[in-house]
Amino acid sequence: MKLGILGGGQLARMLALAALPLGIRCKVLDPSPDAVAGHVAELLVGDYDDPRQLAELARGVDAVTFEFENVPAAAIEALANQLTPVAPNPRALAIAQDRIAEKTLFAQLGFGVPPFRAADTAAELAAAITAIGTPCLVKTRRLGYDGKGQARVAAGADPNHAAAAVLAELRPDLPADRPADLIVEGFVPFDRELSVLAVRSRRGEIAIYPLVQNVHRRGILHLSTAPAPAVPAAVRAAAERFVGDLLAHLDYVGVLAVELFLVGDRLLANEMAPRVHNSGHWTIEGARCSQFENHVRAVLDLPLGDPASNHPIAMMRNVVGSMPERAAVLAIPGAHWHDYGKAPRAGRKLGHVTVVAPDTSTAEAILARVPEA
Ligand code: AMP
Questions:
Q1: How far is the CA of 261 from the centre of ligand 1 (A)?
Q2: Using H for helix, E for strand and C for coil, what is the string for 247-268?
Q3: CA-based diameter of the chain, in Å?
Q4: How far apart are CA 32 and CA 50, in angstroms?
Q5: How many CB atoms lie within 10 A of CB 150?
Q6: Inter-residue contact 78 to 54 (CB < 8 Å)
Q7: Whose CA, among 15, 101, 322, 334, lies 20 to 30 Å from 342?
Q8: Where does ligand 1 bind, in terms of residues with CB under 6 Å?
Q9: What's 209's DSSP letter?
Q10: Does residue 177 have a pLDDT over 90?
Q11: Measured distance CA(290)–CA(282) in Å, rounded
Q12: Ligand 1 atom with least separation from CA of 150
């Protein structure tokens, strides 16, 4: 069997690494000849909207998936014209590309979301800031990632001044006749950030991974702990019910990640990612079947694997910007090292390290020995 993947970064690389033992090869399309999935999969170099390269990606594969959500709609259409199954489906993708559509759907399904409003002009932005109240966050409606495309409006700020400043920051080159395409969200004073990852197969089978606790640094995921410690059973059940409802509602196929805020005993949904997710990297060593293997199984219409943890605790820490010395990390018993093979650059995810352990303090002690470059 063969799987096509749009995007050739570390997520595609880990998908290809998970697919290989199942006897499945991957072919990836990426604009860069240095795309790191190319080390372990056939690499096509080309743009995501190049019909010739898309046809080449679809040729001889059983299904096509993607490793990022900002896939151009034209690419999905071109692939559908090749009669190749694409998963997740275009509707799920379109909703995940739009923060307003996403939050509207979450609310429709009865799940809590932060208060939000769309804003396309300076006047609408000032009105939205007034309606939501301060402090609040303004985000680009589309194409934001890792905390990029976000501005914070401080408590007590004047809405008109704030609107002008935010527009200048997020949309510096916006022509006067173009909508700013922003969303204003109430600032959630969350106690913790959690995520729930689940996978649904073509035949409608659903598997849900243990809830994960996430800590971000400068908008980028820093540390994931699974299962999230001390989460009341009712909260866990609510998250599982929600992600199950979402998967069924979207007729979704593949792994879906939902980022959540925990405020007291209340969960609010922030956003969803229609793909394998950084907060699921721990599953490679920490779950019976990893998110990568389960995504491959789902999109190729194979039976799903068991998402249960195989150790009491797993912790995953990202390596961002620069790499510690390989030998120094490999000398630490229990530290599972993942080097994505990417050139170092400030703010770039270069790898991660996962520790599985009988308890949190053991996991933390091992992780503490891994140098932070
Ligand atoms: P996002 O791009 O929406 O995932 O946001 C990146 C990070 O910003 C989140 O992981 C949170 O730490 C923080 N954040 C996003 N939205 C909110 C919000 N409404 N209230 C408080 N913090 C937020």
A1: 9
A2: HHHCCCCEEEEEEEEEECCEEE
A3: 60
A4: 14
A5: 16
A6: yes
A7: 334
A8: 114, 137, 144, 147, 185, 187-188, 193, 216, 219, 259, 270-271
A9: P
A10: no
A11: 8
A12: 2
Identify whether the C-beta of residue 359 lies closer than 8 Å to the C-beta of residue 287: no
Per the structure block, which two tokens stand in for 322? Answer: 């620069």
Q: 212 in helix, strand or coil? A: strand
Helical (H) or strand (E) element with 360: helix 360-369
Tokens of 256: 């879906």
Q: Which amino acid is at 271?
A: E
80 pLDDT band, cuts 50/70/90, is confident
Cβ proximity of 196 and 212 under 8 Å: yes
What is the rounded distance in angstroms from the CA atom of residue 102 to the CA atom of residue 190? 20
CA of 193 to the centre of ligand 1 (A): 9
Structure tokens at 150: 């976000």
In the predicted structure, residue 24 carries a pLDDT above the cut 80:
yes
Question: Which single residue is written with the structure tokens 């976000």?
Answer: 150
Each residue of 257-269: pLDDT tens digit?
A: 999 999 999 999 9
